[in-house]
Every structure is written in C-alpha cells, then in structure tokens.
C-alpha cells in the first residue's frame, strides 16, 4: 500500500509531538486524520481531517478509527514536573490517560486497524535506578521490578502491558516507544505544563541581563533531552520496522538542569543568576539508553543538545516578545 493510499490517525494531534507528527506524515504523502480536545495552539494543522473530541469517550474513539489503516496514539493527560510531580493531578492523569488507551485500542481492534504506535515514557523506569544523577540505569530491561516515580509513570507502564496484551491475544501489530524528554518549537512554554527546556528558555528570555531565575531543586538533577525532529525520525523508523518494543527514543547526551540553564544563557548572550529553590523535580538522574534501538533499528540522534536548544530558544524568545507587545497594547 503506498503512502498516498494509507490512512493514518494521529491521536493527540493538537499537542506538541502529535502536531509535528501530522506535518511529517503529510510530507511523506499519507492521508492523515487528527483527533484531540483542541486544535494546535501555534499553527494550523495540515491534517486532511481534524476531529475535536474526547477520547475518554468510547463513542468518539469508535468514530475516529473508522476507515483507518494505522494509528499513532500520543493522546494523554500530562505535563512537566509542575503538573506531574505535585500529586494534585494524579487521579486525572491515571483515569484520563488509561481511558484513552482502553478506548482507542479496543475500538481499533474491533475496526480491524492493522497497526498502532503507542507513546510510552521514560517515567516508567524505577526510581531506585535513577538515584545517582551521574549514572542512571534506563535500559529497557530495567523496567521491572516496577517502581515508577509518579502516577503518570504507573499509567504508562499499565498501558504498555495493555497494548502487548492485545498484540498477544488479538494479533494487532503494536509498536511501543519510551520517550525521553522531547523538546522543540511549538511546544507548551508557559502555564504550568511546560517541560524543563521550554521553562528554562522562557525564564531566561524574560530575564534582564544581570537578573535572576528560579530553578526547582538543587539543579544537579540530570536529564537527556531529544529534539523533536530526532524523535519523529525514531518513531517512523520503529513504525516501519518489525520490532514491537518497548524501546527508548531519546538522547544519551546528559546534562544537569543548572547546566542546561547555563547553556541557554550562552545561546541568549545573557548573564543570569540561578536561584535554586524547593520544588518538584522528579528523579535525580535520567538518560536514554540507546543500545537496544541501535541494535534493532540502527537509529541514534544526530543533532546536539546545543543545536536543538538554539532553535527552541529562538522560537520561545519570539513568543515572549509577542506576549510583552500584546500586554503593552492592552
């Protein structure tokens, strides 16, 4: 079946990764239907059809899978550390995301959809393997005994098993990737759901030269961050392969949050003081282990963190400037 004839559904198409994925699939010649609670915030989706709907409703899920060959399921109730780790949103995170996956997978199976991609998360990895910020263990085989650091991670782990159960019992082809901190342009950059790269870029864009910003925790917690185009390369390579997964899609270039802030300062040409304050910060260390995806798919990121952050900071700086301009006009 050629790309031009294959019909693709992207669940979560109004979000950051989903929005970029729709663009990529359209560039590759697919017919694409998007579904989300909302349209994309920063650009008009090129999807052939975009359905506004709540996938926690089984009737919505039933309708959106009609006539579809393959599904990319990225819809979830999620956000950055300020949303996931405070504990205030645990019930919504678990209920909404689990219902989305239960509905989409069941309706896809009933409709005879041939293949479905599921976006899991590095948050499924045990907290006990991520206590050392310099040497975290996030190999795929380390997921059990399970001990995620958040309810978001527990729901993702449950849903991984849900998809694998449908693969074993009903033969629907599934592909599962565990994303590690994906960032880039057109991502949430303010409001409480933004991830660390966007939050740091926004804070430094808003700060005066010689001013200060706040960073949650001691700033020595480490992460690896993957630029959006690299993520999509890995997703498409996995979807077109015969490998089910789960497999990490992330970068092995690890950096502390304080050093991330210093990197953004260098790109911005600003000298800003960091004030480390108490706040949610997740595990002490996390870095993608890409041995398995390298072995199975021959994939690895090619873009440096600096290059990705430079693109992202330039975009967020424009958003901050536009917001300030609008406030002045009001």
Keywords:
single chain; 330 residues; alpha/beta; UDP-galactose 4-epimerase, domain 1; 2 domains; 13 strands; globular
Describe, in short, the structure shown.
The protein is of the alpha/beta class.
CATH H-tier superfamily of the largest domain? NAD(P)-binding Rossmann-like Domain
Number of domains: 2
How many strands?
Answer: 13
Distance between the termini: 53 Å
Low-confidence segments, given as residue ranges, are none
Structure overview:
By secondary structure, this protein is of the alpha/beta class. A seven-stranded parallel sheet has the order 3-2-1-4-5-6-11, sandwiched between helices. A two-stranded parallel sheet has the order 7-10. The protein folds into two domains: 7-181 and 225-249, 3-Layer(aba) Sandwich (Rossmann fold); 196-223 and 253-286 and 304-329, UDP-galactose 4-epimerase, domain 1, CATH 3.90.25.10. The N and C termini lie far apart (53 Å). The chain has ten helices and 13 strands. α4 runs parallel beside α5 and α6 packs across α10 (305-329). The model has no long low-confidence stretch (mean pLDDT 94). β1 (7-11), α1 and β2 form a beta-alpha-beta unit.
């Amino acid at each position: 079946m050629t790309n031009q004839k294959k019909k693709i559904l992207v669940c979560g198409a109004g979000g950051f990764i989903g929005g970029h994925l729709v663009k990529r699939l359209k560039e590759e010649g697919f017919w694409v239907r998007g579904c989300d609670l909302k349209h994309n915030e920063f650009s008009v989706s090129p999807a052939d059809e975009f359905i506004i709907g709540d996938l926690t409703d089984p009737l919505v899920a039933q309708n959106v899978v009609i006539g579809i060959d393959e599904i990319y399921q990225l819809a979830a109730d999620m956000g950055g550390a300020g949303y996931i780790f405070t504990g205030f949103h645990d019930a919504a995170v678990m209920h909404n995301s689990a219902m989305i996956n239960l509905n989409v997978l069941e309706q896809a199976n009933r409709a005879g959809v041939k293949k479905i991609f599921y976006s899991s998360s590095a948050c499924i990895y045990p907290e006990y393997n991520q206590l050392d910020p310099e040497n975290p263990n996030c190999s795929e085989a380390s997921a059990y005994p399970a001990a995620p650091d958040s309810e978001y991670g527990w729901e993702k782990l449950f849903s991984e098993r849900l998809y694998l159960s449908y693969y074993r019992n009903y033969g629907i082809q599934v592909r599962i990737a565990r994303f590690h901190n994906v960032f880039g342009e057109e991502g949430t950059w303010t409001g409480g759901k933004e991830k660390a790269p966007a939050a740091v870029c926004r804070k430094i864009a808003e700060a005066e030269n010689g001013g200060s910003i706040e960073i949650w925790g001691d700033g020595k917690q480490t992460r690896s961050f993957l630029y959006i185009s690299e993520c999509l390369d890995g997703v498409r390579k996995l979807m077109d392969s015969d490998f089910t997964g789960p497999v990490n899609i992330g970068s092995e270039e690890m950096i502390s949050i304080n050093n991330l802030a210093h990197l953004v300062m260098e790109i911005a040409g600003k000298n800003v003081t960091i004030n480390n304050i108490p706040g949610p910060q997740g595990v002490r260390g996390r870095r993608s282990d890409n041995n398995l995806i390298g072995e199975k798919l021959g994939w690895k990121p090619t873009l440096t963190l600096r290059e990705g952050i430079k693109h992202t900071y330039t975009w967020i700086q424009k958003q901050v400037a536009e917001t300030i301009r609008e406030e002045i006009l009001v």
